[in-house]
Amino acid sequence: MNTWLFIRDKLNESVPVLLLWVLQSEGSSPGRRGFKMAVAADGNTSGTIGGGIMEHKLVEKARSLIRAGQSSVFLQEQYHDKQHSRDQSGMICSGSQVVAFLPLQPADVPLVDKLLHAFSESRRARVHLTPQGLALKDTDREATEGLLLRSEEDWDYTETIDQRPVVHIIGSGHVGLALSQQMAMLGFYVKLYENRPDLNTFVDNAFAHEKIVVDYERIDESIGDAPADYVVIMTFGYRDDKIVFRRLLHRKFFYLGMMGSESKIVTLMRELEQEGIPPEAWQHCHVPIGLPIYSKTAPEIAVSIAAEIIREKNRDLPTGRSGVTLEL
Fold first, then answer.
1. Which residues in the chain land under pLDDT 70?
2. What is the DSSP letter of 157?
3. Where in the chain is the domain with CATH 3.40.50.720?
4. Which among 43, 55, 219, 295 could disulfide-bond with 304, CB atoms 3.0 to 4.6 Å apart, if both were Cys?
5. Got the DSSP string for 173-242?
6. pLDDT tens digits, one per residue of 22-40
7. How do beta strands 74-79 and 96-104 pair?
8. Predicted pLDDT of residue 194
9. Answer CATH for 166-314 from 3.40.50.790, 1.10.220.110, 3.40.50.720, 3.40.50.1970
């Protein structure tokens, strides 16, 4: 969203902008689909398409195109190896990207304003990019996301405006506050839940995008099945943790974790088994939550949890690392 805000501000100042937009990414490409970087005619930039020499080259090309008065949308492939005879990015990490060059002029301010409004009002609004330009897509229509490339002159690309993954943080103590900040910084949409509406770390949490007061006994009414979402349980105490865990255990999430010491987790699991919930029911859960980095303070614990979530989120993405020790 920050990149679109940058674009709007520049266009309002009558400064043309060329938007670099990653429409497709394969292999160990540094810039994933949806990455954006705006290059303004005054030399300023916002965002990234992956960094390194590739980004530098494409930014310089964008600046040249702005000076030349580029007005049409076009695509450019970038190969991160030395096997291709053309469109080499200068990187050797393997993989490839398809980057769109989208010129934007002050006359496009109304469209950008509509896009920003859609971003704030609906997390399911979509943008549609073609050689003819950018448009908002009807949110009621189903659309396959990504790039459909028929030829250099015949293609279309659809993307949800707000692509931020959602993390539900249940419990807004000091760790909840630190984790809200960490996850917001990492580009997540943070939903914070608490049953104590006057708690200072809940009231003063400026990092959560939504703050929701709930009855933990009815938490499952506030959080339904969300197969792409991340859920972190860290309430005030053992009793509430157990209530929330039981209520959400059979919901569908990409990630479900609960904070606690090993002894607390063992006690909770024994009680659940005695209550008729078999161990198989929680094998998919991350308990205790977080990577074992000997964290002690609230910010350190937040880092350990965020690191585990990032590991799970990116587990199936190509990293360029085989896990095998290389011998030089």
1. 27-31, 78-95, 121-124, 138-143, 317-328
2. E
3. 166-314
4. 295
5. SHHHHHHHHHHHHTTPEEEEEES-TT-HHHHT--S-SEEEE--GGGHHHHS--EEEEEEEE--SSHHHHH
6. 998 876 556 688 899 999 9
7. antiparallel
8. 97
9. 3.40.50.720
